[in-house]
Write a structure and sequence with these properties.
- The protein contains seven helices and 20 strands.
- With about 300 residues, the chain is of the alpha+beta class.
- It has two domains: about 120 residues, 2-Layer Sandwich (Ribosomal Protein S5, domain 2), CATH 3.30.230; about 180 residues, lpxc deacetylase, domain 1, CATH 3.30.1700.10.
- Helix 1 packs parallel to helix 2 and helix 1 packs across helix 5.
- The two termini are about 30 Å apart.
């Protein structure tokens, strides 16, 4: 069955790149709605943006949606990961600005709100996208790949010159609430050397030591240090989960990212859907549904990220 929230949940904060205050309300939606972002500060007839791969505009530092009227919503990946990771298939995400609030730089606050609100099971068949054959896209030495699997699995590896990050790799089966327990509290990260350059280009205007992990060589500058020794690669997996949900339905397949980012994951979805031989729709029977992200998540799972 499909699922939506039982009640609306409100979040307030600032946009990481815009620095603008924003109020975001995630509300229940009818079956087969999917995830729809809605700008409340623009005319109603141009306010909606479906959270789909074919509405994603190229943006190296975040995932940005753009509709036919030119209206955009940026930095959707953390709330999308929380929705996917909590098993929410239908929701309207309303906000009064152009960027989702960054909160603490992770998905943890979104997850807390969603789990406490609870899920409403809907009398509609849940369909998933089954990957049928290998699909890969490359940019230099970076690549993203999807291969057939009976569950959604994510494997990622990164390599940074800064010793505080270095080389990291991790792989997870995303079933049974793994996202909530393993990934949702991992924050976005950046190098101290990049902060001034981003701000000079009008980016990271809302970034602080409280909503991002900032590293400089072998030092972690953010107060309190890391939440996980491999927090950086965990956050890349979080981003990938959110970006994969723009497929429009849960994916049954293994995602592998090597130095990949938002653009490469979106290109991977374009490549997947470019050939009908790559994938098919499947109706989720109870056994298949039990292997999806979000199944079995409860308030008890929040103890790991409290």
């Amino acid at each position: 069955m499909q699922a939506t929230l039982k009640t609306s949940v409100t979040f307030e904060g600032t946009g990481l790149h815009s620095g603008m205050p924003v109020r975001l309300v995630v509300s229940p939606a009818k079956a087969n709605t999917g995830i729809v972002f809605r700008r409340t500060d623009v005319p109603r007839d141009v306010a909606d943006l479906p959270a789909r791969w074919d509405h994603v505009e190229v943006s190296p530092l975040n995932t940005r949606l753009k509709n036919d009227a030119g209206v955009t919503v940026s930095t959707i990946e953390h709330v999308m990961a929380a929705l996917f990771g909590c098993g929410i298939h239908n929701a309207v995400v309303a906000l009064d600005g152009p960027e989702v609030p960054i909160l603490d730089g992770s998905s943890a606050e979104f997850v807390r709100g969603f789990v406490r609100a609870g899920l409403d099971r809907q009398a509609a068949t849940l369909r998933a996208i089954e990957v049928l054959r290998d699909v890969v896209v490359e940019e230099g030495d970076a690549y993203a790949r999807l291969t057939p699997a009976t569950t959604l699995q994510i494997a990622f590896d990164i390599a940074f010159a800064d010793a505080a990050i270095g080389v990291q790799s991790k792989a997870l089966n995303m079933a049974n609430g793994a996202f909530v327990r393993e990934l949702c509290d991992s924050r976005t990260f950046c190098r101290a050397a990049d902060v001034d350059a981003m701000r000079a280009n009008g980016l990271a205007l809302g970034g602080t030591m409280d909503n991002a992990v900032v590293v400089d060589g072998d030092k972690v500058l953010s107060p309190g240090g890391l939440r996980h020794a491999d927090e950086a690669v965990r956050h890349k997996m979080l981003d990938a989960l959110g970006d994969l949900f723009t497929a429009g339905a849960p994916i049954l397949g293994r995602y592998e990212g090597h130095k990949a980012g938002h653009n490469l994951t979106n290109k991977l979805l374009h490549a997947l859907f470019a050939d009908q031989r790559n994938w098919r729709w499947v109706d989720c029977d109870p056994a298949t549904a039990a292997r999806l992200p979000g199944v079995g998540v409860s308030v008890a799972d929040l103890e790991a990220v409290a």
